[in-house]
Predict the 3D structure of the following.
Amino acid sequence: MESSENGPVSAHGHLPTDPELRVKALEEILVRKGLVEPAALDAIIDMYQNRVGPRNGARVVARAWSDQDFRTALLADATGAIAGMGYAGRQGEHITAVENTPDMHNIVVCTLCSCYPWPLLGIPPGWYKSDEYRARAVREPRKVLADFGVTLPEDKAVRVWDSTAEMRYIVIPERPPGSMGLDEEALAELVTRDSMIGTGLPMEPQF
Amino acid sequence: MTRVHDMGGRFGYGAVLPEPDGIVLEESWHARALALTLAAGALGRWNIDMSRHARERLHPREYARFSYFEKWLAALANLLVETGVLDNSDLLSCAGQQTPRPLSACALRSKNVDVLFGHGSPTTRDCPGLARFSAGDSVRARRLAENRLVSGGHTRLPAYAAGACGRVLRHHGCHVFPDSNAHGLGEAPQPLYAVAFPATELWVNPEHPRDEVVLDLWESYLEPVQ
């Protein structure tokens, strides 16, 4: 293959094809040249495996469910509102929160790549990055919801947000009707990752 | 006119397979590929639009065959060579001698990871002049979803929305323009809008007449509708 600005490029073809060997080889080259520090790789993995994930988003949703002023601020300027809770950073520099209502259900996708609000939800799950989800979520969101076991009332509209720019979206699901009286911590336990992408609903409290 | 990554609306795909909360980096090499890509990006030799374009420029057969993080790795190797950080012989002799490079002074240190990723890289900029559209305006997405600056270049207007009419929901402020920034032609910021398109405008057989798809589109992707 020819290498050019917009044609296919194939420098990667010089590396081993097996992905596990490929990443090892590339890491070794970059480390030996002093361009990558192995401890920095470990720190990045620790951040996204152990510290940044959907529990962050769940706390934001729980607060929005229990504090009307916060909810208003979140819907007006989510980036600012979540920064106040300590959530900010890469792939979440600009965030918009969209609320589910009795009339409207929101779903988030990235048809062009895999844009996702990392500071609130972490690294996206495999299905979010799959060809199936990227192709179908915009054209047949209700059939995609059925794959997740979710059926919406016929009179509820669906709004699909295709993340085509650097704005990242989080869905504020409807608060479960049986959750009155629960504090923020207990509410956050009901908020699933998929409910903040829009492919799921929050759990009902178990008493 | 479009590349294989532009998947919105394509036919032929099967069921989406949900996964339980908690599983995101299934294999240890996925985590390593993610971290290596982020750490190499911190060298500052390319921007996010260039790295997206590098994945999109993989040969269509490779794009379709590679798993997600295989695309990242292939694009990373290509970018490292294209930007002169490595050359092909470095990749070929991966077990051989590797001499340190001056660029290693820019290498990401573990102590800086939290600050760097905790801050990120905001894309809002000041724009000259006024925004052309405001919430409620009717607009049409350009009929051809192609980069107007570079033939076959990077663009963020999906083909499925090209030529469709919608209405502006929000003005997001001015943001770096990927069609320019992906090619080293400058950030050229433009107003960015969330535009809602009725499903009936996008698809021959929409699932429901009230459903909508919202896209974030730069001002030059849009034209006014009277």
